[in-house]
Amino acid sequence: MTKIWRETGFVENDPWVIETDEVKATEEQKPLLGLDELIAKADESNDVGLGVLIKPADDVRRLEPYLYRLEIVAVAFPAFNDGRAFSHASLLRQRLGYTNELRAVGDVLIDQVPLMLRVGIDSFSVTNATALKRLGENRLPAIPHHYQPAVRDADAGKGYSWRRQAKPAA
């Protein structure tokens, strides 16, 4: 069973669907289009409120001219050891200035959720039983120290939790 989770809890009646040969969006639902399909649709229409699914090998920078027309960008995590979607999320938030919903789909594990939140992902399509249970109990793993800047401020506020110091000149 797949559930959509945000920091406020599980979402009921989420309209977004990843279409396959077996699953098609109904009238109440909206499809998450592939990158090429989204670009083709955007080029031939003036539609807004669109959704796109970015796969690991996609060049997320191709979305830049269409970002204002997107309601949601879903980044795919096909396996726990494929972190390219972390880079996609960070690029969307920090360099391209995308501010609407950014969703993780695929192999979303509880240990990765805090890291996904740090790069700007704000909703999660969760199927993993352990992740569903822990998210339902509002039990996220803690990450006490961060070695890199993030889209979101650390608990202590702005700045880095840790920063390299240059050695003084001799």
Structural topology:
Elements: E1 3-6, E2 9-11, E3 16-17, E4 30-34, H1 35-44, E5 50-54, E6 70-77, H2 84-95, E7 101-106, H3 113-118, E8 123-126, H4 129-136
List the secondary-structure elements in sequence, H or E: EEEEHEEHEHEH
Mean pLDDT across residues: 87
Rg calc:
17 Å
Roughly how many Å apart are the termini?
61 Å
Biggest beta sheet attributes? 8 strands, mixed
Percentage of helical residues? 10-25%
- Percentage of residues in strands: 15-25%
Unreliable stretches covering 5 or more consecutive residues: none
Number of strands: 8
Treating each run of at least 4 consecutive H or I residues as one helix, how many helices?
A: 4
Order of adjacent strands in the largest pleated sheet = 2-1-8-7-6-5-4-3
> What is the structural class?
alpha/beta
Query: What is the molecular shape?
Result: globular
Pfam families: DUF934 (PF06073)
InterPro entries: UCP030820 (IPR008318)
Protein name: DUF934 domain-containing protein
